Each structure stands twice: as structure tokens, then as C-alpha cells.
């Protein structure tokens, strides 16, 4: 048995439409092989090879008309986007004040994260992490402290 190639779209076996190029009823549409429906009225090939030879491939159609594939397997063309002429907003960098960082590098006895990490990884490894990553202590997290 030969290895057969399956194509998502193929030219219809019967029926012809008006060719968008030569306006003759010689245009064979591409159909979706799963549903049997035509892909689009402009996607196909004119049979007048010597005179018209118009051929609009499915690949060209999808390049010109990006689509969204939804769960029901229907193909919905996405709206063509206009060239982007938006300007970037004037963003100012944000940062934490140096003094605030410096003041947070203490009170590790009250820091529930540091206490938890030290219980798991040990004090030496946690102290290395504090020094490397500038882990600080904040009053913000004191509300989360609870007793068992």
C-alpha cells in the first residue's frame, strides 16, 4: 500500500463558478476536504489555462486573510489590521528608593519568609540568599502571621 498524502484543501471535482479574473464560468473552487464546503468564492483555479490561468491558492488566501480557528472547526477571518501608527506612551522608569531598600535589610527575626526558608534550607544558605538577592523585611506581611 502506497503512503498517501492527505491535503486539507483540494480542487472541487464538479461544479464551476465565475472566474474573478476573466468572468467566465470556468473557475474551480478549493474545498475543505473535512467539511466539503468551499474555502472562499475567490480561492480556486480557472480552467482556461491558455487564456486566463488565474490561480488563487489556499496558502495565498490565508496569508492575505489571517484566520482564527475556534473549537467548532469553523474558520473565521480576522479583521485586517491597519498599519500600526501608535506612539509609545512616555513611560518613566519606576524604582524603589535606595533608603527604603537599606532600611528593609534588617528585622529578619520578624520576617516570616526568612523564618520559613531557614527552617527548610538552613541559616547559612538563607543568609547567602539575603546577601545575593537583597531580601528585605516589610511590615506589610505582618498581617499574614498567624499562630497554630
Explain this structure.
This protein is α+β, with helices and mostly antiparallel strands. The protein folds into two domains: 9-77, no CATH class; 98-144, no CATH class. 24% of the residues lie in helices and 14% in strands. The chain is built from four helices and six strands. It has helices spanning 58-64, 98-104, 112-121, 123-133, and strands spanning 9-11, 27-32, 44-46, 55-56, 67-69, 75-77. The strands form two sheets. A four-stranded antiparallel sheet has the order 1-2-3-4. A two-stranded antiparallel ribbon has the order 5-6. Strand 3 and strand 4 form a beta hairpin. Helix 3 crosses helix 4. It is elongated. The termini are far apart.
Topology, element by element:
Elements: E1 9-11, E2 27-32, E3 44-46, E4 55-56, H1 58-64, E5 67-69, E6 75-77, H2 98-104, H3 112-121, H4 123-133
Short description:
By secondary structure, the chain is α+β, with helices and mostly antiparallel strands. Helices cover 24% and strands 14% of the residues. The mean pLDDT is 80.
Amino acid at each position: 500500500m502506497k503512503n498517501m498524502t492527505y491535503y486539507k484543501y483540494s480542487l472541487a471535482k464538479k461544479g464551476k463558478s465565475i472566474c474573478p479574473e476573466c468572468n467566465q464560468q470556468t473557475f474551480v473552487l478549493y474545498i475543505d476536504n473535512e467539511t466539503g464546503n468551499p474555502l472562499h468564492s475567490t480561492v480556486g483555479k480557472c480552467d482556461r489555462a491558455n487564456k486566463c490561468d488565474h490561480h488563487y491558492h489556499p496558502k495565498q488566501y490565508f496569508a492575505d486573510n489571517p484566520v482564527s480557528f475556534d473549537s467548532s472547526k469553523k474558520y473565521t477571518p480576522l479583521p485586517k489590521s491597519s498599519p500600526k501608527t501608535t506612539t509609545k506612551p512616555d513611560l518613566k522608569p519606576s524604582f524603589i528608593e535606595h533608603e527604603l531598600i537599606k532600611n528593609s535589610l534588617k528585622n529578619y527575626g520578624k520576617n516570616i519568609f526568612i523564618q520559613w526558608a531557614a527552617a527548610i534550607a538552613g541559616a547559612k544558605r538563607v543568609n547567602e540568599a539575603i546577601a545575593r538577592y537583597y531580601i528585605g523585611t516589610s511590615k506589610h506581611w505582618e498581617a499574614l502571621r498567624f499562630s497554630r
